[in-house]
Every structure is written in structure tokens, then in C-alpha cells.
Amino acid sequence: MSRLRAVLPLVVLIGIGVALWATGALDRFRPHELIAQQHQLHETVNAHPLLAVCVYVAAVALVIGTGVPASWVVILAGGMLFGVLYATFLTATGELLGSLLLFFAARHAFSAGTRPPPPMAERVRRGYLQHPAGYTLFLRLVPVLPFGGVTVALAWLRCPLWLFALATFAGGCVMAVFETAIGAGLARSLAHGQEIGPHLFTQPRVLGPIIALALLALVPMAIQRLRARRAARRVQLSDDQRKSR
Fold first, then answer.
1. Tens digits of per-residue pLDDT, 202-219?
2. How would you write the chain as a 3-class SS string?
3. Are the CB atoms for 150 and 144 separated by under 8 Å?
4. CA-CA distance, 159 to 136, in Å (whole number)?
5. Which residue has the higher pLDDT, 39 or 99?
6. Least confident span in 120-124, 161-165, 182-186, 212-216
7. Domain span at residue 198?
8. Domain tally, the chain
9. Contact predicate 52/45, CB 8 Å
10. Which among 74-88, 107-121, 206-220 has the top mean pLDDT?
């Protein structure tokens, strides 16, 4: 029973995420819906700015906290409605709030375990705790895993709360810059008289952030190859030294 109580908050969050996905509640945030209603949405934001900000931050926190894989559509909406700079700050704030909710739920679930973790898992955790800041910042700043997956992983690794919050806000800002720029680019294209259609995503102001985001996703592969080359050079240097002796 204690184990069930421990995992209940995490199960509830996952259940809400599944419901949001299954019911299509997030469909109104999809690009074609936003593009079609852009004028009315901007009027609503201008008429009720504080309410619009609160609703947007709450929506981002909800999709991040529940692990919905379609969080990007909400962030795209923020770029269209608030612009890059303002939307980046609001998005990072919402992501921090949602991530903290998921982090506490996951940590509460993991703390209920009574059996010791497998040796391999314990070695991974000990390795992380030796350099927590470097690993945490890397996981947050580079899109290696989904945002919610990284949150759960950091909770399992016993990441300090202050480090988790700092890295999450910083990583959220980095990712939000590109994602909100796409939304803002779509809004500017429409403002200049572009017709609604797939060709909007080929405009430089939209395509540029998409390419930048794709390049950012390749960073882990580049780092891995660089480390492999350095390791191979060290092995080769060691072999050369032994042969010279």
C-alpha cells in the first residue's frame, strides 16, 4: 500500500497526459489551427494580457509536467502570440514549473523502493554524483532525450533541487529560443501577406530556426565522436610509447 501511495502522484500525472493526448485537447494549438485563428488570438491577448500570460504558462507547465509528447505545439503558439523574447521567458518559466511537478512526483515514487538497485544502476548513479553539475547541464542543454524523460532520469539520479531548477530554466531558455522563433516566424510571414499553407515553413524566418534546432540535436553525436577520437589518440600514443621503450 505504501508503494502504491508513493507512485500515485506520478501515475496521476501520466494519466492526465494520456487524457490530453487521447481527447485531442491540444489540437487547438496545432500550427494550422493557430494560423487560421491568429487575428482573433492576438486580439484576445491584447485585450487580456495578464490572463493570456497565465493561461500560456499554465498550459506549458501542464504539458511538461504530464510528459505529453506534443509540448512543442504549445511552445510554437507562444512564439506566434508573444514574440521570441517574451515567449522564451514565459516558456522557460512554464517548463520549470511543470518539470518541478514531475520531478517531485518521480522522486517521491523512487524513494519508496526498499530493495537495493542493481550494481550497474548504482555505478551509473555514483558516476553522476561525482560530476552532477556537468551531467545535469549537458542533459538539459542538449536535446538527448525528451524533456520529461530527462526530468525523471534526474530525479532517479538524485539531482540536487537547486541544480535541477537552474539547469531546467537555462535549458528551457535555450530550446525555447528556437521553438518560439519558429512560431514568431510564421506570424511575421502571415503579417506580410503570405497565404496559409505548407510553404510557410520554407520561409527563411521559419526554416532558419528549424535548421538550427536540428543542428543542436546533432551535438551529442559530435561530442561522442570527438571523445572517441581522443580516446583512440591516447591509445595510439600509449602504444607508441611502449614500442619506443
1. 555 555 655 665 566 556
2. CHHHHHHHHHHHHHHHHHHHHHHCCCHHHCHHHHHHCHHHHHHHHHHCHHHHHHHHHHHHHHHHHCCCCCHHHHHHHHHHHHCHHHHHHHHHHHHHHHHHHHHHHHHHHHCCCCCCCCHHHHHHHHHHHHCHHHHHHHHHHCCCCCHHHHHHHHHHCCCCHHHHHHHHHHHHHHHHHHHHHHHHHHHHHHHCCCCCCHHHHHCHHHHHHHHHHHHHHCHHHHHHHHHHHHHHHHHHHHHHHHHHC
3. yes
4. 8
5. 99
6. 212-216
7. 2-244
8. 1
9. yes
10. 74-88
CA nearest to 179, candidates 69, 36, 66, 83: 83
Identity of residue 148: G
Using the structure block, give the residue that is written with the C-alpha cell 532558419. 208
Q: Which grid cell sits at 149?
A: 524523460
Residue type, 94: G
